[in-house]
Amino acid sequence: MTIENGTQLASSYTTSSTRLYIWVLLAILAGGVLGYLDARHAVMLKPIGDGFINLIKMLIAPIVFCTVVLGIAGAGDMKKTGRVGVKALLYFEVVSTFALATGVLVANVVRPGKDFNVDPATLDPMAVSVYVKQATEQNVVDFLLHIIPKTFTDAFTSSGDLLQVLLVAILFGFALQKMGSAGKSVYSFIEACAQLFFVMINAIMKLAPLGAGAAMAFTIGKYGVIALKPLLILMGSFYLTCILFIFMVLGSIAALNGFNIIKLLKYIKEELLLVLGTSSSESALVPIMKKLESLGCSRAVVGLVVPTGYSFNLDGTNIYLTLVALFLAQALNIELSLSDQLTLFLVAMLTSKGASGVTGAGFITLAATLAVVPTLPIASLSLILGVDRFMSEARALTNLIGNTVATIVVSHSEGELDKAQMHVELNR
């Protein structure tokens, strides 16, 4: 895809998404009202919401592959590509640590679980048995081996893991760049495929109001608003922590790199609404990549940082892990020592890596994290089963915002950010 075609596609998406904004907002509100007034019929809309997310996920792997390959093969400088990757990973680790620390800090100051006084003997371990099984079957070696697909096509057809797609795309891009003029026909073919996939995603995005509204109707209809009352303190603490992190930590990072976090949030409001409705940051992966290119970030940086960030830069999930883990300890009147909290902190730094943006992944990761503290029963997760879905929105929103900021920061550090274009877009 030529630069001109890429710009036209990005501009086309921006225009259409602006028109969809009001419809997505209305659909989310309508879905919430339907879920509250007619829960029985609202829960029947789940296949519609799931179907929309599956349509989006169907195109994520090929779009990421084409974007990364074209970015690397067209960059010409392999050292720069490696440098971008290293910078991104270092940034992810530093900011993820701040996110984990923020969760620990708020949990110790607010102590949202202090008045629950839950008797551990009353917990139902069967309620979380599925999550425990998934969590305990994973370890670091399995995770590392999982990054390497068994075959080239397996990266696209088996697990849908973006890290596998990213690995294949990087190797393919390097090889294509080394071939020089001999690989020109392959490069042109991938350009055409990329343009085709972007046209498809633009068409699918027109269904966003339907998918977001149905997903919200199911959530409210399934879990209800009344069920939230006993755990409103936890939810309030979590949402407050995410807000503090976005405006204080990410806001400071944004200011140091020459842009305003509030203006950025306004710029990506369509993608934020989409994530709010579907509870999945994956639903906005492709749209946010196009938005970032329109903002002035280079395609090569966007193609590397965003897909990698979806596995390694999950700020919302990091906050969730430490805050909820300490909440459960407080609810059970279990005093965790400084050593226990430090262990949780360190383990969370590992378990949070590789968790996808799909709804429910954070819960499974939390189960794996709790397993390292013997005094804190994994069965305590049953206490938050009813509200985990409502917290997934904040997790997904924070993850998306964190990856958007990360991409701009890395682009800026590489001199691959058109600042004039960024300020024009942000000041509209």
Structural features, described:
This protein is an all-alpha fold. The protein has one domain (3-426): Orthogonal Bundle (Proton glutamate symport protein). Helix content is 75%, strand content 0%. It is built from 20 helices and no strands. It has helices spanning 3-37, 39-42, 46-75, 78-110, 129-136, 140-147, 154-157, 162-179, 184-204, 208-223, 232-256, 261-267, 269-278, 285-295, 299-312, 315-331, 338-351, 361-370, 388-413, 419-426. Helix 11 (232-256) runs antiparallel to helix 16. The radius of gyration is 21 Å and the shape is globular. The protein starts with a helix and ends with a helix.
Tags for this model:
about 0% strand, mainly alpha, Proton glutamate symport protein, about 75% helix, disordered N terminus, about 425 residues
First and last CA, distance: 27 Å
| Helix proportion | over 70%
CATH architecture: Orthogonal Bundle
Shape: globular
Encode the helix/strand succession as letters. HHHHHHHHHHHHHHHHHHHH
Named CATH topology: Proton glutamate symport protein
Structural class comes to mainly alpha
Instruction: Name the CATH homologous superfamily.
Output: Sodium:dicarboxylate symporter
Please tell me the total number of domains: 1
Please state the CA-atom Rg, rounded to the nearest Å: 21 Å
Largest sheet: none
> Given the structure, what is the number of helices?
20
**CATH class designation:** Mainly Alpha
Query: Strand percentage, roughly?
Result: under 5%
Q: Number of DSSP strands?
A: 0
Low-confidence stretches: 1-15
Mean pLDDT equals 80
